[in-house]
């Protein structure tokens, strides 16, 4: 193509025209899908040409084909970014000026996407030179833009000026910026400069542009061209307020002080609705607050709304949508933009916005009816978003107070009425998922969550005002009744309704929000729930045998989910606390049996106990209802059962409350706790034994309920004294029906039973308990392996199922290893070593069994290796060596290229699982060097471990392809092992043969170019260890990596660099010319230093080569 930037002379014209025709033709071919490869190559040649600016400019100014002009603009951008460092200052400025001039000159063009692209190119080039241009040079560009925005050159040019600022702000925002192959610091410095020096100015320009056309819009009776400009200005203002402010003068992102208690950010992660808090700093006060800007915006929207009140389409037209978005955004204004000593200004600002938003949402019933009759629901939804934004920057008390100055009730009452209306609409249209009410419900629930979440954990000091409590109680009653009606209706519908047929946890998020509303008024809601539950249970008993109970059962199911969320939090991964609201209320209660929470809990436990009766079970307790029962008992027991006084205290000020003492003592070990615990264990055994094939129910029982019981040590002491627990352990060991549980449940149940051994009074007793529990499992595996007809017997389906079941149980027990039970689990694994090896040979064609065998060994070694003495470690290492040899000898894990694509994918998946298990096994063996509780020296152990890992690498490395490394988990495990091996046993890698060694280093090279920072870090650590080892060894007179490090000449006479030389080149290329996280700089430097020490001459040559290129 043609060089240069300025327009070409007459002698260039034929070539320019030829280029233009070629690009036009290529674009037309792509549109009609004719020879697309050649067309794409033609366009690519333009993009990749050195300095194609004259040709691109000629195409933009002369071509009649819009797509050709688009490609020319894209080529300018790519070439300029690529060649920026070689362009003169005049050329850089000339490119930007040309792009700006082009969009202004063609402002009235109908090809919007072309001028949008050129505008975007101008913005990208301006950012690329941002840190180079002087303030005066920037001023030249912005003067041109400001003149356009002022409107003196017409509405089209005014719109173009605003649109360019949109492109510029987007380009400077980290989330929408274009890649430029520049460090993150460049982008951050550009962002800081724009935010501190220009963003506020852009906002003011947008304000002025909107003001300049407002009167014409309001006075006109039809759509006028000014609307386009106004919409663009409003959109730009919204975009600027959506900026993540960090550097604004007078304020920082962390400086939030809204009303007396400040803004909360603790609930943002639990919300479905995005709400961006606007914190631009004190310097923005004059633009946003002191200039009557908010009042103008509210009046503009109100005037247009009133004017077009009978035009149904208007609510969804662009200018109306943009105005509402900006109003909603201003509702979340926070931080130092409000002077710290002027709380009244904050309240007036929010009250003004709330007054403007009220007509969108109030009265709720009237507006809802209009929407049902055909009016757009977008305004109502934006009104809900405005309430959420206000809630995000206020406390519940301040939120409620806002409306009282203009209405006889508080904002919480309005929120309750609005939510209540939405719930009614949802109930009436329960089969229609596309209604506005679903979105409105989610937004309003987020609003309640935002207001109430911090109060729920505040120690009970922050209560809602009485009117707010009444509003919350009324709303929760309506919600609960509507949920019961939906549940009842779901019993008679054949539709696959997700809300009705979902699993126990499917509605968890929504029910969590309902629970917060209930806890805001527990004095009313807990007795209300008790009455609802008692009524449904009574109805079940009254109609038993005569009335179809399905509808009532669905209502009970729904109630159990709601009550479970109200009474207890999830507690996953942490100690569950009784919600503060339930501890601080009911202050008049002095007897534990009369506490509303105790009454509600007891009624549910008594109802659940009825499932132990076979007749009741067959008539009432369906598998679906049992799921809800088990889920509730798991959640409830972890929060209330046998509370330890120093664990579940909540806030200090709560400890002296009499009502709290009643709540905490009723279900403790000295009162009803042990009795309830026995009921729960018997219910668990019933759900496992009496509901065969109910996978979800069994998984809930094993993984949630039973596991919740053994998570607290004090409960374990009582569990082992119960006949019901002994019955469960005996059924686990001997009852064939429990062998029908799926693998996950088998593993979880074994883990739970072994963990309960902590309840034994001594370590010897705990070990004996585990031995007795697992004896049947180990003996069955030993007997099977010793059977003389094992090869034929092992292929029978029932034997395969038995082996799989036993292995899952052994794996579950192994994963429950603790110091008290370590010896018993070690002996359990020791007793099945030979059977495992025997079964590995027999089941070489059963990939599922092979995987279970490997995973058991992995989990067992992981739990045992750090406790073993030297001779025990040697035995485990020898066992692992034998396992690897058998796995290798039978070619397990290799893939036949003759397989069909489907079978090949399945084989890859199985291979991936096996290889990952083997990698984990080798990694666990290596961990002995880092964590070792044995009393012996580890020198001998290290030798044995390095040998088995060395052998393992020989087996694994040929099987791990670059394709398999695209599996993230396998990739992480592989590089974790390689990094550790090279840091601890570098000599092991040096002993690999040439093919295996090169394969490992090829994967390291692959890992260096991954997106995951952790993977790249591990590869860099591996390189550092490898180079350091070679340098130290050679300095000591040894060979180090030997032939691997020295260059070699192949039979064709071609010289190949050594591995260290190759990685020195790659690492320098990586550091100097590729995009990477700054978090990698330190680790990369650590890897680079020993590589330089190993290859100083090459490093000097590369440095000289780089300097020469830069000079050119």
UniProtKB/TrEMBL annotation:
Gene3D superfamilies: Leucine-rich Repeat Variant
Keywords for the protein's UniProt record, in alphabetical order: Cytoplasm, Nucleus, Protein transport, Transport
GO CC list: cytoplasm; nuclear pore
GO function term, MF aspect, one: nuclear export signal receptor activity
Keyword GTP-binding assigned: no
Compartments reported by the entry: Cytoplasm; Nucleus
GO biological process, one term: protein export from nucleus
Family that this chain belongs to: Belongs to the exportin family.
Protein name: Exportin-4
Organism: Brassica napus
Gene behind the chain: BnaA05g32950D
């Amino acid at each position: 193509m043609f060089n240069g930037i300025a327009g070409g002379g007459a002698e260039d014209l034929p070539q320019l025209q030829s280029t233009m025709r070629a690009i036009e033709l290529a674009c037309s071919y792509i549109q009609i899908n004719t020879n697309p490869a050649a067309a794409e190559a033609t366009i690519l040649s333009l993009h990749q040409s050195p300095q194609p600016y004259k040709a691109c400019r000629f195409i933009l100014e002369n071509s009649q084909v819009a797509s050709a002009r688009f490609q020319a603009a894209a080529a300018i951008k790519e070439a300029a970014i690529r060649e920026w460092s070689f362009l003169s200052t005049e050329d850089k400025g000339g490119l930007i000026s040309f792009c700006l001039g082009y969009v202004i000159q063609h402002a009235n063009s109908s090809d919007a996407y072309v001028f949008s692209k050129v505008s975007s190119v101008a913005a990208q080039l301006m950012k690329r030179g941002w840190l180079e241009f002087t303030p005066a040079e920037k001023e030249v560009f912005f003067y041109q833009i400001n003149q356009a925005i002022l409107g003196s050159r017409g509405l089209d040019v005014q719109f173009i000026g605003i649109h360019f600022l949109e492109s510029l702000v987007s380009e400077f925002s980290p989330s929408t910026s274009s890649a430029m192959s520049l460090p993150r610091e460049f982008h951050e410095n550009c962002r800081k400069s724009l935010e501190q020096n220009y963003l506020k100015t852009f906002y003011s320009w947008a304000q002025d542009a909107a003001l300049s056309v407002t009167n014409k819009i309001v006075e006109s009776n039809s759509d006028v061209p000014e609307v386009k400009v106004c919409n663009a200005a409003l959109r730009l203002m919204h975009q600027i307020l959506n900026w993540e402010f960090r550097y604004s003068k007078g304020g920082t992102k962390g400086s939030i002080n809204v009303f007396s208690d400040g803004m909360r950010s603790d609930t943002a992660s639990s919300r479905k609705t995005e709400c961006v808090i606007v914190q631009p700093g004190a310097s923005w006060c004059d633009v946003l607050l002191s200039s009557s800007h908010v009042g103008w915006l509210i009046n503009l929207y109100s005037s247009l709304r009133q004017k077009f009140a009978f035009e149904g389409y208007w609510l969804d037209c662009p200018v109306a949508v943009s105005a509402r978005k900006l109003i909603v955004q201003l509702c979340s204004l926070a931080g130092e933009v409000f002077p710290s000593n002027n709380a009244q200004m904050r309240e007036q600002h929010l009250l003004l916005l709330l007054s403007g938003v009220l007509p969108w949402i109030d009265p709720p019933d009237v507006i809802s009816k209009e929407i049902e009759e055909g009016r757009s629901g977008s305004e109502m939804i934006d009104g809900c978003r405005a309430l959420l934004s206000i809630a995000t920057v206020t406390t519940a008390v301040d939120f409620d107070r806002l409306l009282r100055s203009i209405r006889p009730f508080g904002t919480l009452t309005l929120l309750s009425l609005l939510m209540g209306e939405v719930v009614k609409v949802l109930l009436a249209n329960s089969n229609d998922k596309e209604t506005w009410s679903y979105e409105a419900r989610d937004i309003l629930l987020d609003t309640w969550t935002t207001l109430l979440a911090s109060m729920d954990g505040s120690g009970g000091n922050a209560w809602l005002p009485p009117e707010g409590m009444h509003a919350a109680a009324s709303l929760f009653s309506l919600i609960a009744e509507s949920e019961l009606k939906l549940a009842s209706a779901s019993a008679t519908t054949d539709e696959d309704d997700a809300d009705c047929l979902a699993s126990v946890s499917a509605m968890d998020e929504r029910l969590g929000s309902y629970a917060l509303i209930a806890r805001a008024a527990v004095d009313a809601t807990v007795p209300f729930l008790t009455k609802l539950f008692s009524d449904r249970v009574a109805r079940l008993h009254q109609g038993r045998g005569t009335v179809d109970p399905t509808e009532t059962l669905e209502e009970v199911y729904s109630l159990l989910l709601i009550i479970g969320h109200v009474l207890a939090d999830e507690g996953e991964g942490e100690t569950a606390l009784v919600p503060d609201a339930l501890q601080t209320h009911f202050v008049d209660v002095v007897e534990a049996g009369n506490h509303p929470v105790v009454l509600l809990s007891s009624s549910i436990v008594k109802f659940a106990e009825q499932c132990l009766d076979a007749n009741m079970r067959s008539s009432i307790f369906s598998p679906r209802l049992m799921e809800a029962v088990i889920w509730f008992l798991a959640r409830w027991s972890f929060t209330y059962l046998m509370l330890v006084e120093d664990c579940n205290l909540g806030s200090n000020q709560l400890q002296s409350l009499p009502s709290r003492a009643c709540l905490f003592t009723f279900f403790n070990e000295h009162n009803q706790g042990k009795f309830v615990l026995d009921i729960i264990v018997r219910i668990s055994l019933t759900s496992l034994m009496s509901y065969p094939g109910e996978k979800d129910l069994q998984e809930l029982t094993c993984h949630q309920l039973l596991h919740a019981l053994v998570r607290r040590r004090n409960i374990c002491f009582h569990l082992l004294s119960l006949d019901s627990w002994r019955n469960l352990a005996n059924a686990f060991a001997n009852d064939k029906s429990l062998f029908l549980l799926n693998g996950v449940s088998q593993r979880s149940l074994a883990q739970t039973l072994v963990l309960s051994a902590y309840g034994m009074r001594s370590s010897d007793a705990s070990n004996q308990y585990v031995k007795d529990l697992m004896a049947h499992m180990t003996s069955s595996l030993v007997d099977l392996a010793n059977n003389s007809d094992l090869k034929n017997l092992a292929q029978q389906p029932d034997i395969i199922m038995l082996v799989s079941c036993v292995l899952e149980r052994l794996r579950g027990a192994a994963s429950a290893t603790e110091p008290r039970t370590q010896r018993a689990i070690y002996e359990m694994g020791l007793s099945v070593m030979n059977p495992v090896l025997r079964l590995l040979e027999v089941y070489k064609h059963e990939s599922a069994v092979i995987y279970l065998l490997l995973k058991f060994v992995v989990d067992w070694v992981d739990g045992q290796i750090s406790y073993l003495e030297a001779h025990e470690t040697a035995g485990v290492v020898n066992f692992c060596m034998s396992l690897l040899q058998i796995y290798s000898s039978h070619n397990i894990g290799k893939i036949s290229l003759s397989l069909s694509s489907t079978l090949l994918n399945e084989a890859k998946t199985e291979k991936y699982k096996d290889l990952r298990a083997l990698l984990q096994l080798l990694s666990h063996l290596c961990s002995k060097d880092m964590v070792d509780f044995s009393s012996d020296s580890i020198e001998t152990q290290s030798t044995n471990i390095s040998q088995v890992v060395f052998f393992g690498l020989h087996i694994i490395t040929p099987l791990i392809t670059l394709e398999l490394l695209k599996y993230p988990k396998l990739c992480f495990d592989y590089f974790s092992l390689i990094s550790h091996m090279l840091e601890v046993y570098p000599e092991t890698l040096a002993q690999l043969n040439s093919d295996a060694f090169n394969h490992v280093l090829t994967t390291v090279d692959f890992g260096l170019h991954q997106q995951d920072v952790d993977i790249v870090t591990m590869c860099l650590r591996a390189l550092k260890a490898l180079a350091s080892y070679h340098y130290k060894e050679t300095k000591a007179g040894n060979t180090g990596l030997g032939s691997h490090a020295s260059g070699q000449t192949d039979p064709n006479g071609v010289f190949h660099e050594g591995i260290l030389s190759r990685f020195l080149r790659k690492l320098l290329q990586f550091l100097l010319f590729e995009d990477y996280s700054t978090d990698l700089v330190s680790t990369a430097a650590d890897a680079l230093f020993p590589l330089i020490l190993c290859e100083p001459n090459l490093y000097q040559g590369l440095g000289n080569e780089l300097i020469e290129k830069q000079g050119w």
